[in-house]
Amino acid sequence: MDFAKVLNELRQKKAEKIACAQQLLSEGKVDEAAAVDAELDGLCKQISTTENLMRRSQEDAEPLPEDGGKPEDKGGAVRPFRSLGEQLQAVVNAAKTHMSDKRLLQVNNAVMGSNEGTSADGGYAIQEDFAGQILETAVSTGDILSRVDSYTVGANSNAARWLMVDETDVSASVFGGVQMYWASEGATVAASRPKFKELKLDLEKMMGFAYATDELLQDAAFMTGFFGTAFTVAANRLLEDAIVCGDGSGKPTGILNSGGLITVDAETGQGVGTLNAQNILKMWSRALVSGRKNMVWLMHPDLEDQLPQLMLGDKLIWMPEGGISGAQFQTILGRPVLFNDNCQAIGTKGDVLLADLKQYMLLKKGTARQDWSMHVEFLTDQMCFRMVLRCNGMPKVTAPIQLKNSTRTRSPYVTLAARSASGGGTQQAGRSGGGQQAAG
């Protein structure tokens, strides 16, 4: 039985009866108004009975573990709902009847530390395992997200602060100043100590919206599959876009906006929007050697038809997926090629990236807020859900690295400059980062 629907109908009848009684009184028809008042007594009793039955049905629907205890797992997390769809149905009923299912308040208390009602942001907290699953699934299924260095903060945290080695030159020392000497070089050696910098990353809000009709809201299984998948895919796309090119303003800082990015010049006279073997080799030569085993090529899909033409002499440096090695992805110089339309348009800086994604930090919070509106699409009988997730990210390396016996800097993030008919023939050596161009 849809108690929310019955309650709304009864309350509508009550409002109509009150308006009718007021009209009769204004016309001096006291006896007729008294009869309507008697009908109102019956309606109020029906409303009260329906509210009590709805409250009891919600209590009975609360799933209990087999041992008959409270709806908590062994870790103490409150998990009274069996599925995301079941919780969304409870949210809908709360929105329509203005009466909160006590299970929603249990989750709010556990996640937000509140005592009653909703938070200042409005809405209810999504049960922790459902909310965490949305982000975790997005991270595990994304070609980019599954490769970054991912961390989860606790329910009461909104930021992370940590110390990181501050080094841009490893030609004479490591970890920003630590050195080792051969004992025979002298009785005394210079003191050495590491250099650190403190970094802080505040969580940002990522929001998603979805609509559902009243008919669909009756099917908890459908809501679980549809909303869980929809918000996961949407979170995946938005996060991967931010990791590639986020500007850091209310969102993660992307690799293309990292101070550690090295930009390699195009070849002199190179055709507009083209990619050739020399571009690839020069990008590879600027990649930090220690991280090459983790590196991937990120490319806009429009570049794919040029890859079979990447020839070095009479040999291809590209290998199709499957190929001789049976690789899952296409490869260039043995490293996977990940096609992603979050890369920049073909021919512009950022359409191709060589990156060690382990050198990107993603911070996420395994809880979410769920808000609703029954008015946004009132005329079409729809409900609007708003999911709010908290996360942020940034590249770990903030400046190119100088190696010993080399005039070139290297980095875990390398991109190719825009290609135009005039070509980027400027030859630069030494340090290059934060969007500066440097030839290989």
What would you say this structure looks like, in words?
- It is a single chain.
- This protein has 440 residues and is α+β, with helices and mostly antiparallel strands.
- The protein is built from 8 helices and 19 strands.
- The strands form 5 sheets. An 8-stranded mixed β-sheet has the order 10-11-12-7-13-18-6-19. Strands 1, 2, 5, 14 and 15 form a 5-stranded mixed β-sheet that branches. Strands 3-4 form a two-stranded antiparallel ribbon.
- α3 (84-97) packs across α7 and α5 crosses α7 (220-245).
- The chain is elongated, with a radius of gyration of 30 Å.
- The termini are far apart.
- The relative contact order is 0.14.
- Mean pLDDT is 75; it is low at 59-75, 113-121, 372-376 and 423-440.
In short:
The chain has 440 residues and is α+β, with helices and mostly antiparallel strands. Helices cover 30% and strands 22% of the residues. The protein has an eight-stranded mixed β-sheet with strand order 10-11-12-7-13-18-6-19.
